[in-house]
Write a structure and sequence with these properties.
Layout: H1 2-21, H2 35-41, E1 54-55, E2 60-61, E3 66-67, E4 73-77, E5 80-84, H3 87-95, E6 101-103, E7 110-112, E8 117-120, E9 127-130, H4 133-142
Antiparallel strand pairs: 1-8, 2-3, 4-5, 6-7, 8-9
């Protein structure tokens, strides 16, 4: 019986040590991306776009209004395609009309983010949505 108990302890110890040394499975997070991730995405060696550049909608998280530097999750809704960075954004876009709309800073008019002219306007990847390239150019000239 003593040998059985000793062997059981050895086996349990081996299993425990093996389990503790294996890497933990990667867990997905549903939180919004940290601004540091956006800032890292804007480093010159990784980002083809900079402040003042118009960018494709598919590189923008429309919930966080941020240039993400990579393809985002497409979320079709009412004939338009919006983009989000995570499952939380994907779930929120169809439910929350406020994340699908923005105000054109040049005209003050509401604009649908899915059809907007999108420009990086902040130092940390923040974006603004314009009715058109013309309204953006008008604002840029006025500044």
């Amino acid at each position: 019986m003593n040998q059985f108990i000793r062997a059981s302890f050895i086996i349990c110890g081996a299993v425990f040590l093996t389990a503790c040394s294996s890497p933990a499975p990667k867990q997905e997070t549903t939180a919004a991306p940290a601004r540091t991730a956006v800032t890292a995405a804007l480093q010159p060696e990784t980002a083809p776009y900079k402040k003042g550049d118009a960018i494709p909608a598919n590189l923008v998280c429309m919930v966080n209004d941020a240039y993400m530097g990579k393809q985002q999750i497409a979320v079709p809704f009412n004939g338009s395609t919006y983009y989000g960075c995570c499952e939380m954004c994907k779930d929120r876009i169809p439910k929350d009309a406020s994340v699908r709309k923005a105000t054109d800073p040049a005209t003050g008019k509401p604009v649908n983010k899915a059809s907007a002219y999108i420009v990086i306007t902040g130092n940390n990847g923040e974006v603004s949505y314009f009715e058109s390239a013309e309204t953006y150019k008008k604002l840029a000239q006025d500044q």
